[in-house]
Design goal:
The complex is a heterotrimer. In chain A, about 75% of the residues lie in helices and about 5% in strands. By secondary structure, chain A is mainly alpha-helical. In chain A, helix 3 runs parallel beside helix 5. In chain C, about 75% of the residues lie in helices and about 0% in strands. In chain C, helix 1 (about 5-40) crosses helix 4 (about 65-80) and helix 6 (about 115-135) crosses helix 7 (about 145-175). Classes of the chains: A mainly alpha, B alpha/beta, C mainly alpha. Chains in contact: A-B, A-C, B-C. The interface of B and C includes residues 29, 30, 31, 76 and 378 of B. The structure holds adenosine-5'-triphosphate (ATP) (2 copies) and magnesium ion (2 copies). One magnesium ion (MG) binds near residues 61, 107, 380 and 381 of chain B.
Chain lengths: ~250, ~475, ~200
């Protein structure tokens, strides 16, 4: 089914803006329905228009579930607004219906935000995202390619970390017992790692400049990233979902 | 060596024009007390092939940085005197203008790239030059074809081996169609046959494009009669020039083996798999005490991977390793990871396993005494490697693994390295060394292991291997006696 | 604004961002689990970790914009790595960076003493708290709990990012790796003209 790639093919910068708009909108709602409807809608969208490995999706949702539970009981315990009808009493501790609603709302908000983030993460190629930020949102090429160098550095960080730890073990340091010693030992690991990063930054920058990179805007792209009709269609779908959940939430509560 | 003996008849100059001209140039790094260069003068003509030579740490890389204008602006160093490029003061060029005409391949194979795969990296280069899109496609395909990198077009650069990265970097430089090509020890990480091809290919390229080539190289013997002139880098004065430099390969003293019959180290059926890719397959290898073994093979065959696996840096998916109680010593291909102190001197003394006399001897012979107070991170490439080797030699580990210890070393450093390693072997240490330098290998090795596509394809007594021309060619190795490519 | 920046400085921020993005992500995992047990307050005492990159970069590079740019780049890279917090991290990155930047701007980008760094940590904490107030719905929480959270975050900003950042950068400076960046240029002057650092 070809529609299953629509979210993957969507312009990353546009997708990014949509995520930010949705989030800033949802932040104004304190009823449980708005985030819930939005969350379900996003899951549905993902189901229809993307190929997602749902097993991984659930695995990633688990820690988010923890955060959501944290929000639930903190809001119940420490709500600012304690008006409303008491619906539940336990050892002299009262929960009103208003409190319950706010708590649920914040909990669902965590889910709504996260589903949106996962949608983005699952359907977006990181490199294209940065290139699109540069091409559509006019991010400075200096920053964009700077970020690209950093991104290349990522797998290296892991390897260097292992190498440095190994080198330290090889040379007989790095066996601290106490927690605070280990914390200070972190410095011994971090500093060579950072020193390596500094040199790498310098060399990469030199190599880029040696290839004629000056940081000025480019006139041609080898792989131009555009916005096509279908992108606008997806935009309308997501904005409608946002509107429906906002209005629906207000009506239902 | 400071003379102008004879000239190639074909290169008789008809008023060549000078494109790089250093006149009384001095240069000093901001925090240093002494200048790297004091009133130096030399020049390079259009269409010339020049090699800069001089001992490791004398400032060759720094000179290249001055030529492509990365210094002084990027390091706040002090530059005095007149440095002209194409008869115009170098400081008067707009940013990027020089770099579109002078392409550079740097010494360090890592950290030369900013995009994920080869094609994107090449596109990045062309985008910088505002090349139209149709032309980009054509130029990329052409250059890949020419450099033999077509199969790697979509490969992620990070997963390439050191030598392959160096080739990609060269391809990107060529792609710019520059007037001048600066090469900083381009052969250091290439296997012998590839190095030979590289030289031949550079020769054709230079002839067809009338390119000017300025290279830094210690190992002139690999280049045959490629260069027109050798410029000897010194810290001051007008540089002496040698026309048509040629070197025959180095001579090392003869050594007798010191193998004892005790096994020092054994690896059985090592396999390494990474992301569905088999990097090593059933590699078994055994070293005895006092044995010096060489691990050789083409670029990307898995030599570095094997050493890393032995040290436990990479996880093996199968197999088993035995090396007694003390970890093997290890000098990685990028030696900086080893450094834990702030001074070269402390670095060598760190383990405290050796007496002062031995340490002083190591320092002196590896020429580290001149930089003993410098920070290990801020010395030249070859010096860093020697610091790491020195530290590991002083550590006195029964098994020593060296990943390309010979790369970037000048002739005298190689001689000292030869003696130091030989002495360690006599003391009963087992040494496994990766190198592309077949002359060095032939002189020092007791045994040579051959690796190809992640599989161990042969174990030879030293002099046994060199008789098998077929095997050598198959592993992209060259016999040290016929190493001169026919340019 | 970027005209006066050298490419190597921009790339430096980016690679630092990567090193710390990895650290951040580790802490997010830890924080997420903890926050199931003790609520959103779990993140507060380690919140300073999130500002450290902006403070280190500003301290090393000493140019207007270093704090906000580095924090933004760190967040973009976190998004590229892919995580459950997602693209909105970029927004919080910008806000936190602005907070730190405010402190450096208030001193006219002239002073980089330990207390300015702490102040930057505090600034980042205040900005990020205000942002959290809006986005995570803190307004629904009890003021006394909010005060506790706020206090913890400010403290963490000052200690972990301010002092911790200085401790790390000074260690790095001693390795000589930072030659050619403003921090090494200014050190000798600092000793000569007591306390006055020319940026
Ligand atoms: N950024 C720097 N700051 C201070 N000193 C430096 C810096 N870079 C190099 N040096 C010093 O300048 C000298 C020349 O270094 P350079 O890297 O140019 O040597 P090289 O001739 O290329 O050596 P090799 O053959 O080992 O690569 C060395 O002694 C080194 O310690
Ligand atoms: N992280 C990785 N993922 C996938 N493949 C990898 C990775 N690291 C290395 N390889 C591959 O493993 C092979 C062996 O690499 P290795 O660095 O061991 O080669 P090498 O023999 O040391 O080559 P060189 O002489 O060029 O240094 C290469 O083909 C390389 O592309
Ligand atoms: Mg050099
Ligand atoms: Mg290798």
């Amino acid at each position: 089914m070809s529609s299953r790639t629509w979210l993957h093919d969507m312009n990353p910068a546009l997708k990014f803006i949509l995520v930010v708009i949705s989030m800033l909108t949802l932040a104004w709602f304190f009823n449980p329905w708005t985030p819930l409807i939005f969350f379900l809608g996003i899951v549905l969208l993902q189901f229809l228009f993307s190929r997602v490995n749902w097993k991984i999706w659930f695995l990633l949702m688990i820690p988010i579930g923890f955060t959501a539970i944290g929000y639930l009981w903190t809001t119940l315990l420490f709500a600012a607004d304690t008006t409303g009808n008491v619906i539940w009493v336990w050892r002299g501790f009262e929960v009103t219906d208003e409190q319950w609603k706010t708590a649920l709302s914040l909990t669902f908000r965590v889910f709504a935000f996260s589903s949106m983030s996962l949608l983005f993460a699952f359907t977006t190629d990181p490199v294209k995202f940065v290139m699109s930020l540069m091409q559509q949102l006019r991010l400075s090429p200096k920053l964009a390619y700077g970020v690209m160098v950093g991104y290349q550095f990522l797998p290296v960080v892991r390897e260097e970390f292992i190498l440095i730890r190994h080198a330290h073990r090889l040379r007989g340091i790095g066996k601290e017992k106490h927690a605070w010693q280990r914390l200070l030992g972190m410095r011994r690991l971090l500093i060579p790692l950072l020193a390596g990063a500094v040199r790498r930054a310098e060399r990469s920058a030199f190599a880029m400049e040696a290839r004629g990179f000056t940081g000025e805007r480019r006139t041609v792209y080898y792989e131009p990233i555009g916005i096509v009709g279908r992108d606008w269609l997806m935009t309308i779908v997501i904005i409608s979902l946002l509107t429906v959940s906002s209005i629906g939430g207000l009506l239902l509560s | 060596m400071v003379s102008t003996h004879y000239k190639k008849p074909m290169s008789l100059p008809v008023a060549k024009n000078t494109i790089i001209d250093f006149n009384q140039v001095s240069f000093q790094f901001p925090d240093d007390e002494e200048a790297v260069f004091q009133d130096i003068s030399f020049s390079v003509q259009k269409g010339e092939r020049v090699v800069l030579s001089g001992p490791s740490g004398c400032g060759k890389s720094t000179l290249l940085y001055l030529m492509n204008r990365l210094y002084p602006s990027n390091c706040d160093g002090k530059l005095n005197g007149s440095l002209q490029l194409w008869n115009k003061d170098a400081a008067n060029y707009a940013p990027g203008e020089i770099n579109a005409r002078i392409a550079t391949v740097f010494q360090d194979p890592d950290a030369q790239f900013c995009m994920p795969n080869v094609e994107q990296e090449m596109a990045f280069t062309l985008e910088n030059l505002h090349v139209p899109r149709k032309e980009m496609e054509r130029r990329i395909t052409e250059t890949l074809e020419m450099t033999g990198l077509t199969p790697f077009r979509k490969t992620t650069i990070q997963t390439l081996s050191g030598g392959m990265k160096q080739r990609v970097a060269t391809a990107c430089a060529i792609l710019m169609q520059p007037g001048v090509l600066l090469l900083d020890e381009p052969l250091a990480h290439l296997d012998p046959l590839t190095a030979q091809e590289y030289v031949e290919w550079l020769d054709r390229l230079q002839l067809s494009r009338s390119l000017t080539i300025v290279a830094v190289e210690h190992r002139l013997d690999l280049w045959g009669p490629f260069f027109d002139r050798a410029i000897h880098v010194q810290s001051s004065g007008t540089y002496p020039v040698e026309m048509n430099p040629m070197r025959s390969s180095m001579n090392f003293p003869k050594r007798t083996t010191s193998i004892q019959s005790v096994v020092a180290f054994e690896a059985c059926n090592i396999s390494v798999r990474m992301k569905e890719k088999q990097l090593l397959q059933d590699v078994s290898l055994c070293l005895q005490r006092g044995e010096i073994a060489i691990l050789a093979g083409p670029n990307g065959s898995g030599k570095s991977t094997f050493l890393k696996t032995i040290c436990g840096i990479l996880k093996k998916s199968d197999g088993h390793i035995q090396y007694g109680i003390i970890y093997p010593g290890y000098v990685p291909q990028s030696p900086e990871h080893l450094f834990v102190t702030q001074r070269v001197d402390d670095e060598i003394r760190f383990s405290n396993r050796t007496d002062d006399a031995t340490i002083d001897d190591i320092m002196l012979r590896l020429r580290l005494d001149e930089i003993q107070n410098a920070h290990p991170f801020s010395v030249s490439h070859g010096q860093k490697r020697r610091v790491a080797i020195g530290a590991m030699l002083a550590d006195k580990r029964p098994v020593l693994l060296l990943d390309e210890p010979t790369s970037g070393q000048d002739a005298s450093a190689l001689q000292e390295l030869f003696h130091l390693i030989d002495e360690r072997a006599k003391e009963g240490f087992a040494i496994l060394m990766v190198t592309h330098d077949m002359t060095f290998a032939a002189a020092i090795a007791d045994t040579i292991f051959l690796l190809k596509n992640g599989e161990l394809t042969g174990r030879f007594e030293n002099n046994g291997l060199l008789k098998h021309a077929e095997v050598l060619r198959d592993h992209k190795l060259a016999s040290p006696f016929g190493a001169c490519p026919h340019v | 604004m970027l005209k006066s920046w050298k490419l190597k400085e921009v790339v430096l921020m980016s690679v630092f961002a990567v090193v710390f993005a990895v650290v951040y992500l580790l802490f997010v995992q830890v924080g997420n689990i903890w926050s199931g047990v003790i609520g959103p307050i779990a993140f507060e005492w380690i919140f300073g970790i999130w500002f450290i990159v902006s403070i280190i970069c500003a301290y090393i590079i000493r140019k207007p914009g270093a704090a906000v740019l580095s924090e933004t780049m760190a967040s973009v890279i976190e998004v590229m790595i892919g995580n459950a917090v997602g693209p909105r991290l970029i927004l919080s990155g910008i806000v936190q960076g602005l907070g730190a930047e405010a402190a450096f701007a208030a001193t006219g980008y002239k002073r980089y003493d330990w207390w300015v760094l702490c102040l930057a940590g505090v600034g980042a904490a205040i900005f990020s708290f205000a942002y959290g107030f809006l986005v995570s719905g803190y307004s629904a929480l009890d003021p006394s709990l909010l005060a506790l959270m706020f206090g913890l975050r400010v403290l963490s900003g000052a200690v972990i990012s301010g002092l911790g950042g200085k401790y790390l950068s000074d260690g790095l400076l001693a390795t000589g790796a930072l030659r050619g960046y403003s921090i090494s240029r200014d050190v000798p002057k600092k000793h000569k003209i007591k306390g006055e650092v020319i940026g």
